[in-house]
Amino acid sequence: MARVSGPGFRELYTPKLVTILRDHYGAADLRADAVAGLTVAIVALPLSMAIAIASGVTPDRGLYAAIVGGFIVSMLGGSRFQIGGPAGAFIVLVAATVAQHGLDGLLLATFLSGLMLMAIGLLRLGTFVKYIPYPVTVGFTSAIAVVIFVSQVKELLGLRLTGPEPGAILPKLHALGAALPSVSVGACAVALLTIAIIIIVRRFRPHWPAFLVAIVVAALLAAAAGLDVATIGTRFGGIPRSLPAPHLPDLSLDRIVAVLPAALSFALLGSIESLLSAVVADSMTGRRHRSNAELVAQGIANIASALFGGLCVTGTIARTATNVRAGAHGPVAGMLHSLFLLIFLLIAAPLASYIPLAALAAVLAMVCWNMAEKHEFATLLRASRGDAVVLLVTFLLVIFRDLTEGILAGFGLGALLFLHRMAEAVAVEHGGPLLSPADRADREGGGEEGYDAALASDPGIVLCRISGAFFFGAAATVGAALDRIGDQPGAYIVDFSDVPLLDSTAAATIAGLAAKARRQGATLYLTGTRSSVRRVLLAHGVRPPFARFRKSVEAAVASARKGQADAERDGARQRSPSERLRGGSI
Questions:
Q1: Integer Cα distance of 157 and 577 in angstroms
Q2: Do 302 and 344 share a domain, yes or no?
Q3: Which residues form the STAS domain (predicted)?
Q4: Is 367 a member of any domain?
């Protein structure tokens, strides 16, 4: 049989842009992508500024990330429909990095995370991101939604804090509670109006850009009514009308060491978020993304965003889904979305000064509501005790401790839960009749599967079957079961037909059984071993004369009976004539 080789470098890392251009990309495709790109740009415009402000930096930093990073993600990425830019999931990490290391530290961490993402993609580690347990993704996403919402309470209510807003959630809640007497009626009105418009537009005009409509109406009404509310202009002095010149961040060793934990967190979260977004796009379109190419593109995008002073860049699920629903045909839509944002920056930047911060906070509040995954959270709480524990540990640690700590703890618990479940699924059947695989396949209605009575009739032969993935988590249980079978039989037969994989610990357990059989003068037969299973067993010394391999249980039983008959004949020849006469042999 010819061996099927894996995909080559070109197949793994060719951008989807090249793929669609090869597929006779035409004027109709360009028109569809232009409409989709404009639609996504309208959605991304207020979100990019809101995410930047919530992250503790000026709103233009979010636009730089969406323009520069978003363009590169679409141009070089492995997904046809991925939209890159600043994401709400990064707000907590970015805000903490800015508070600890300043803007320069943030740019350096973003730059380093880009290098890490490129390395992850080039080492072909993108496929491993799919092993993040579902309760972990739901837990950290819901927790991030809670943390972001709490961070927006100050702007939603127009509160005036006596000092800087704390980063940790409990001190933050205490500070917000102390500042409640300073609540602004104008800010509350703007926030409520923005939320109401978003809900109404989504209900009655779902194809309209609800966020942008709400922001524009709120800004116009706030200016017309002369409301005393903070705006982008009063807080930040507006936004520049051009992209800054690219420059390298401070690459001194001390600074790199200082921001390295933040860079690792950015790379971890960025890889998870971007590949989840690509999977969402695949599920909506039936296409398949190239995960490692996507990570390389995300890495280059983060490096470029840092050079232009932008935030972290990742795949954004909401904007990607909007891109698909708007009828995009390929990555050109994402590239055009960035160009439309650049045009806004060049032409309409002064208008952003009139946007109330309470309106942007309301936009983020709606984003948090959609991020919270309320239905999935409730379902996992009811699903099983193990999933609920993983979910709650991740959720609470992200809220009260740290996002990276929550993800790692949740992943560790999820891995232990999986191992426990896999170990419980491994079974050792013995002492009953063993059916052959063909008989078991023909049996209808399930029921217990055991040994064929004709094969199990010999008391000198012990038969058992191991079923399930035989690995270190189940080795102790299987070893104890094997130790209990038989009372010094002439032969052990262990059927591996239902063992898909076996690790070193399991092989050592079988080696122990082989040594035990040899001490008892018995023979160990292993049947139904796959090539991968047999390879591990042979590597651990489970080989003749300690053990013998047979294709089937029937063949092993025949060999065992023949061996016993040969042993009896040899013993009879060695006995004296008087002993043979007493034994009835003469």
A1: 108
A2: yes
A3: 451-560
A4: no
